Amino acid sequence: MKFFVDTAEVDAIRELQATGLLDGVTTNPSLIAKSGRDFKEVIAEICEIVDGAVSAEVAATDLEGMIREGEHLAKIADNVVIKIPLTPDGLKACRHFSNNGIKTNVTLCFSANQALLAAKVGATYISPFVGRLDDINLTGMDLIADIRGIYDNYDFETQILVASIRNINQVSEAALVGADVATIPPAIIHKMYHHPLTDKGLAAFVKDWASTGQSIL
Ligand code: E4P
How far is C-alpha 62 from the chain's CA centre? Predict the structure, then answer.
Protein backbone atom coordinates (compact mmCIF):
# COMPACT_ATOMS: atom_id res chain seq x y z
CA MET A 1 0.00 0.00 0.00
CA LYS A 2 1.28 3.43 -0.92
CA PHE A 3 1.57 6.13 1.75
CA PHE A 4 0.52 9.67 0.91
CA VAL A 5 0.66 12.43 3.50
CA ASP A 6 -2.47 14.52 3.95
CA THR A 7 -1.14 18.02 4.58
CA ALA A 8 -0.14 21.32 2.96
CA GLU A 9 2.64 21.94 5.52
CA VAL A 10 5.85 21.93 3.49
CA ASP A 11 8.18 21.38 6.49
CA ALA A 12 6.23 18.27 7.53
CA ILE A 13 6.39 16.94 3.96
CA ARG A 14 10.15 17.54 3.76
CA GLU A 15 10.67 15.69 7.06
CA LEU A 16 8.58 12.73 5.92
CA GLN A 17 10.24 12.63 2.51
CA ALA A 18 13.53 12.00 4.33
CA THR A 19 12.09 8.82 5.92
CA GLY A 20 11.82 7.12 2.52
CA LEU A 21 8.20 6.21 3.29
CA LEU A 22 6.41 8.83 1.25
CA ASP A 23 4.76 8.01 -2.08
CA GLY A 24 2.73 11.20 -2.54
CA VAL A 25 0.82 14.09 -0.99
CA THR A 26 -2.84 15.11 -0.83
CA THR A 27 -4.08 18.63 -0.13
CA ASN A 28 -7.55 20.12 -0.01
CA PRO A 29 -8.89 23.69 0.29
CA SER A 30 -9.20 23.37 4.09
CA LEU A 31 -5.55 22.29 4.44
CA ILE A 32 -4.44 25.14 2.14
CA ALA A 33 -6.45 27.63 4.24
CA LYS A 34 -4.85 26.21 7.41
CA SER A 35 -1.35 26.67 5.91
CA GLY A 36 -2.09 30.37 5.31
CA ARG A 37 -0.03 30.21 2.11
CA ASP A 38 -0.56 30.83 -1.60
CA PHE A 39 -2.07 27.65 -3.11
CA LYS A 40 -0.07 27.46 -6.35
CA GLU A 41 3.21 28.33 -4.62
CA VAL A 42 2.66 25.56 -2.05
CA ILE A 43 1.83 22.98 -4.73
CA ALA A 44 4.94 23.93 -6.74
CA GLU A 45 7.10 23.65 -3.61
CA ILE A 46 5.63 20.25 -2.67
CA CYS A 47 6.20 18.96 -6.22
CA GLU A 48 9.88 19.85 -5.90
CA ILE A 49 10.19 17.83 -2.69
CA VAL A 50 8.16 14.75 -3.68
CA ASP A 51 8.44 12.73 -6.91
CA GLY A 52 5.09 10.96 -6.43
CA ALA A 53 1.52 12.17 -6.97
CA VAL A 54 0.60 15.55 -5.47
CA SER A 55 -3.16 16.22 -5.38
CA ALA A 56 -4.28 19.82 -5.97
CA GLU A 57 -8.03 20.44 -5.71
CA VAL A 58 -10.04 22.68 -8.02
CA ALA A 59 -12.08 25.43 -6.35
CA ALA A 60 -14.72 25.82 -9.08
CA THR A 61 -17.82 23.63 -8.92
CA ASP A 62 -19.04 24.08 -12.51
CA LEU A 63 -17.71 21.98 -15.39
CA GLU A 64 -16.04 24.75 -17.38
CA GLY A 65 -14.45 26.25 -14.27
CA MET A 66 -13.12 22.87 -13.08
CA ILE A 67 -11.61 22.16 -16.51
CA ARG A 68 -9.96 25.59 -16.74
CA GLU A 69 -8.58 25.43 -13.20
CA GLY A 70 -7.48 21.80 -13.55
CA GLU A 71 -5.62 22.45 -16.81
CA HIS A 72 -3.90 25.43 -15.17
CA LEU A 73 -2.90 23.44 -12.06
CA ALA A 74 -1.67 20.51 -14.17
CA LYS A 75 0.94 22.80 -15.74
CA ILE A 76 2.62 23.42 -12.35
CA ALA A 77 4.49 20.08 -12.48
CA ASP A 78 4.28 16.64 -14.08
CA ASN A 79 3.32 14.98 -10.79
CA VAL A 80 0.27 17.19 -10.11
CA VAL A 81 -2.96 15.18 -9.83
CA ILE A 82 -6.19 17.16 -10.25
CA LYS A 83 -8.57 16.65 -7.36
CA ILE A 84 -12.23 16.97 -8.33
CA PRO A 85 -15.39 16.66 -6.22
CA LEU A 86 -17.70 13.71 -6.82
CA THR A 87 -20.53 15.61 -8.51
CA PRO A 88 -22.08 15.20 -11.98
CA ASP A 89 -19.95 18.07 -13.32
CA GLY A 90 -16.92 16.77 -11.42
CA LEU A 91 -17.24 13.40 -13.14
CA LYS A 92 -17.59 15.06 -16.56
CA ALA A 93 -14.42 17.01 -15.79
CA CYS A 94 -12.76 13.74 -14.73
CA ARG A 95 -13.63 12.17 -18.09
CA HIS A 96 -12.18 15.24 -19.87
CA PHE A 97 -8.92 15.02 -17.88
CA SER A 98 -8.55 11.26 -18.30
CA ASN A 99 -9.13 11.61 -22.07
CA ASN A 100 -6.35 14.20 -22.10
CA GLY A 101 -3.79 12.24 -20.07
CA ILE A 102 -4.18 14.32 -16.89
CA LYS A 103 -4.29 12.30 -13.66
CA THR A 104 -7.27 12.76 -11.35
CA ASN A 105 -8.29 12.17 -7.75
CA VAL A 106 -12.07 12.12 -7.31
CA THR A 107 -12.77 13.28 -3.78
CA LEU A 108 -15.65 13.36 -1.27
CA CYS A 109 -16.71 9.78 -2.01
CA PHE A 110 -19.10 8.30 0.54
CA SER A 111 -20.73 5.38 -1.30
CA ALA A 112 -19.83 2.37 -3.45
CA ASN A 113 -22.08 3.68 -6.24
CA GLN A 114 -20.14 6.96 -6.31
CA ALA A 115 -16.88 4.98 -6.52
CA LEU A 116 -18.30 2.93 -9.42
CA LEU A 117 -19.16 6.13 -11.32
CA ALA A 118 -15.67 7.55 -10.76
CA ALA A 119 -14.04 4.37 -12.10
CA LYS A 120 -16.26 4.45 -15.18
CA VAL A 121 -15.07 7.97 -16.07
CA GLY A 122 -11.43 6.88 -15.74
CA ALA A 123 -10.45 8.41 -12.37
CA THR A 124 -6.84 7.67 -11.45
CA TYR A 125 -7.73 7.69 -7.72
CA ILE A 126 -10.99 7.55 -5.80
CA SER A 127 -10.95 9.08 -2.30
CA PRO A 128 -13.51 7.54 0.08
CA PHE A 129 -13.55 9.43 3.41
CA VAL A 130 -13.55 6.79 6.16
CA GLY A 131 -13.27 9.12 9.17
CA ARG A 132 -16.24 11.25 8.18
CA LEU A 133 -18.37 8.08 7.78
CA ASP A 134 -17.24 6.85 11.21
CA ASP A 135 -18.20 10.31 12.57
CA ILE A 136 -21.83 9.62 11.65
CA ASN A 137 -21.83 6.11 13.15
CA LEU A 138 -21.22 4.22 9.92
CA THR A 139 -18.21 1.97 9.33
CA GLY A 140 -15.96 3.73 6.85
CA MET A 141 -13.76 0.70 6.30
CA ASP A 142 -16.75 -1.37 5.10
CA LEU A 143 -16.98 1.06 2.18
CA ILE A 144 -13.32 0.43 1.30
CA ALA A 145 -13.94 -3.34 1.25
CA ASP A 146 -17.05 -2.87 -0.94
CA ILE A 147 -15.19 -0.68 -3.43
CA ARG A 148 -12.28 -3.19 -3.53
CA GLY A 149 -14.74 -5.97 -4.40
CA ILE A 150 -16.45 -3.95 -7.12
CA TYR A 151 -13.21 -2.75 -8.71
CA ASP A 152 -11.77 -6.27 -8.68
CA ASN A 153 -14.94 -7.70 -10.27
CA TYR A 154 -14.40 -5.54 -13.33
CA ASP A 155 -10.62 -4.99 -13.29
CA PHE A 156 -11.04 -1.24 -12.90
CA GLU A 157 -7.63 0.43 -12.70
CA THR A 158 -8.80 3.32 -10.48
CA GLN A 159 -6.77 3.22 -7.28
CA ILE A 160 -8.56 3.28 -3.93
CA LEU A 161 -7.07 6.12 -1.89
CA VAL A 162 -8.35 5.91 1.69
CA ALA A 163 -8.87 9.45 2.99
CA SER A 164 -10.04 11.11 6.21
CA ILE A 165 -7.87 8.83 8.34
CA ARG A 166 -8.08 9.71 12.03
CA ASN A 167 -6.14 6.93 13.80
CA ILE A 168 -3.41 4.34 13.28
CA ASN A 169 -5.80 1.37 13.27
CA GLN A 170 -7.45 2.71 10.12
CA VAL A 171 -4.10 2.50 8.31
CA SER A 172 -3.58 -1.22 8.98
CA GLU A 173 -7.28 -1.92 8.34
CA ALA A 174 -7.01 -0.16 4.96
CA ALA A 175 -4.02 -2.36 4.09
CA LEU A 176 -5.90 -5.49 5.21
CA VAL A 177 -8.86 -4.80 2.94
CA GLY A 178 -6.55 -4.14 0.00
CA ALA A 179 -6.61 -0.36 -0.43
CA ASP A 180 -4.05 0.91 -2.94
CA VAL A 181 -3.16 4.08 -1.04
CA ALA A 182 -3.76 5.63 2.37
CA THR A 183 -3.42 9.37 2.80
CA ILE A 184 -2.43 9.97 6.37
CA PRO A 185 -1.99 13.13 8.49
CA PRO A 186 1.67 13.59 9.60
CA ALA A 187 0.91 13.07 13.31
CA ILE A 188 -0.63 9.66 12.58
CA ILE A 189 2.34 8.55 10.43
CA HIS A 190 4.62 9.42 13.39
CA LYS A 191 2.42 7.42 15.79
CA MET A 192 2.69 4.32 13.58
CA TYR A 193 6.32 3.77 14.61
CA HIS A 194 5.58 3.43 18.28
CA HIS A 195 4.78 0.52 20.54
CA PRO A 196 5.41 0.54 24.31
CA LEU A 197 7.03 -2.92 24.13
CA THR A 198 9.51 -1.62 21.51
CA ASP A 199 10.53 1.24 23.85
CA LYS A 200 10.75 -1.09 26.87
CA GLY A 201 12.67 -3.77 24.97
CA LEU A 202 15.15 -1.28 23.53
CA ALA A 203 15.80 0.31 26.94
CA ALA A 204 16.63 -3.16 28.32
CA PHE A 205 18.94 -4.00 25.39
CA VAL A 206 20.78 -0.65 25.74
CA LYS A 207 21.25 -1.21 29.50
CA ASP A 208 22.41 -4.83 29.11
CA TRP A 209 24.77 -3.93 26.29
CA ALA A 210 26.34 -1.19 28.40
CA SER A 211 26.89 -3.75 31.19
CA THR A 212 29.07 -5.86 28.83
CA GLY A 213 31.57 -3.02 28.46
CA GLN A 214 32.01 -3.97 24.80
CA SER A 215 32.00 -1.81 21.67
CA ILE A 216 31.20 -2.97 18.16
CA LEU A 217 33.51 -0.52 16.39
C1 E4P B 1 -7.78 14.00 1.57
O2 E4P B 1 -7.65 13.90 0.40
C3 E4P B 1 -9.02 14.45 2.23
O4 E4P B 1 -9.38 15.71 1.78
C5 E4P B 1 -8.81 14.41 3.72
O6 E4P B 1 -8.25 13.16 4.05
C7 E4P B 1 -10.07 14.70 4.52
O8 E4P B 1 -9.81 14.47 5.88
P9 E4P B 1 -10.76 15.02 7.04
O10 E4P B 1 -12.06 14.30 6.96
O11 E4P B 1 -10.02 14.70 8.30
O12 E4P B 1 -10.91 16.49 6.82
Answer: 24
